[in-house]
Amino acid sequence: GRYNRSLSVKELARLLGYSAMTLTRAIKELAEKDLALAEIIGREKRLTFSISAKKLWSKVLPDLQNPVKKSLWIATPQKTLSFPIAGESALAESTIIAAPESRTMAIYAVEWPGLRKRMGLEEREERDIACIQLQLWRYNPALLTEGKTVDPLSLWLSLKDIKDERVGMALDQLMESFWS
Questions:
Q1: Cα dihedral: 95, 123, 108, 59 (round 10)
Q2: Average pLDDT over every residue of 135-145
Q3: pLDDT per position as a tens digit, 113-131
Q4: How far is Cα 96 from Cα 115, in angstroms, rounded to an integer?
Q5: Most exposed among 47, 97, 146, 175, judged by the fewest C-beta atoms under 10 Å?
Q6: How far is residue 32's CA from residue 38's CA, in Å, rounded to a whole number?
Q7: What gap in Å lies between CA 107 and CA 113, rounded to an integer?
Q8: Angle (nearest 5°) at CA 15 between 21 and 117
Q9: How far apart are the first and last CA of the chain?
Q10: In angstroms, rounded to a whole number, what is the distance separating the alpha carbons of residues 8 and 15?
Q11: What separation in angstroms does the CA of 86 have from each of 58, 117, 142?
Q12: pTM to 2 decimal places
């Protein structure tokens, strides 16, 4: 699959925006769990995943947390927002579930205060039709986004605890098409 390749540690740090120290710790943890191998190839350190993406996913699943730190409602701004589509809005893009009335988008939580000020975004106490649900994520959702929606694995993690049969069925459909 698309994750089954070797990555330069330097390239990975740049891509993910983590410090070399944080990445070194993460790689050590992956190696200890026999999930990946860090090796020196030529002049660079490369990370190679030793198992298939699907196996890797099921092995790390118990350690993965919901990417959504907090959800809030904002008044729909004049300017078009170009953040990745998330939540049930994203689920509706690739499954049979109907799109919710309000759009859900995701941003990196640390960017929220600056963005709010810069764009003059107004937080609302409760939702109404003229609102957008904004999810503040633990990591930058744009890093893994291909196209206009958040990546399927993060989307699944963000919705897996919702007790709604429609959502559950759509999530099964999402994963089926992701792994096939």
A1: -50
A2: 92
A3: 999 999 999 899 877 778 9
A4: 33
A5: 146
A6: 11
A7: 11
A8: 95
A9: 10
A10: 10
A11: 22, 22, 11
A12: 0.86
